[in-house]
Hints:
heterodimer, A: 221 residues, 71% helix, B: alpha/beta, Rossmann fold, 5 helices
Amino acid sequence: xxxxxxxxxxxxxxxxxxxxxxxxxxxxxxxxxxxxxxxxxxxxxxxxxxxxxxxxxxxxxxxxxxxxxxxxxxxxxxxxxxxxxxxxxxxxxxxxxxxxxxxxxxxxxxxxxxxxxxxxxxxxxxxxxxxxxxxxxxxxxxxxxxxxxxxxxxxxxxxxxxxxxxxxxxxxxxxxxxxxxxxxxxxxxxxxxxxxxxxxxxxxxxxxxxxxxxxxxxxxx
Amino acid sequence: xxxxxxxxxxxxxxxxxxxxxxxxxxxxxxxxxxxxxxxxxxxxxxxxxxxxxxxxxxxxxxxxxxxxxxxxxxxxxxxxxxxxxxxxxxxxxxxxxxxxxxxxxxxxxxxxxxxxxxxxxxxxxxxx
Lengths: 221, 128
């Protein structure tokens, strides 16, 4: 037996025709968790089968249901217009490939810089006095600067992770509202406790610098 | 206090470039006996089979992270007193607190400079 719709005042007998009642029962049996497509189907069925005099409250309810049906239809059209397949099949893979290429190119460039720097270090070792000190100081600065490659690599890895999350969310939305109804994305597992700590480099305005970390460590003493 | 710079130093990072940078910076401050490992598991194996006076490790590595390596070192009867410096891009308060609670000797945030590295090594080995 079906439940009365919201706003139903029980004034008359059952407002659903036997045909509709049977149809609703079949839908409920087939899919206990109603998909938007099924909701829209029910809305259409209600609108086309209700008959007889309606009260103002029932008219308001019908109007709301009709609006709900239109909203669902518009949402479906908008999702279809997004060409989601382009996003998941082309745009995001292209972006991640480009980012991977950046990492490879910077790693290659850094390798070449370090090789040259090591040569300069050897030259510095063969010299003495102020010239040797200046040369070694310069190579030290180059080594320090080259650590950018590690930081940029980690930042790009974070961006790739974000893109993949967006890709999964888009697929989830399409599964829920788009043409490929039915499939549900896997629930993302909660990260392990140490994984919560691994956030990679922070943006400058969020990061603690070395002096902040020294103060924090000193607070343990 | 003079520091024995002939000791073996183990540097641990999954970025080969970073290993190379740290090795060169250590060389410039006269630490010439440097070995490398690309993750915590390889480092632990080397620590158990070798003789080291200092570990300088990244945090974010797989399959064993720097924090897990630190915990293993502190739980090992033979290694528990090993000076251990973490060099990582993880700079949140909770990271530093977790590392300290696990027994880290000092903590350097990337990007770092040679002076900071030298300063932390001297502090750690000065107290060892």
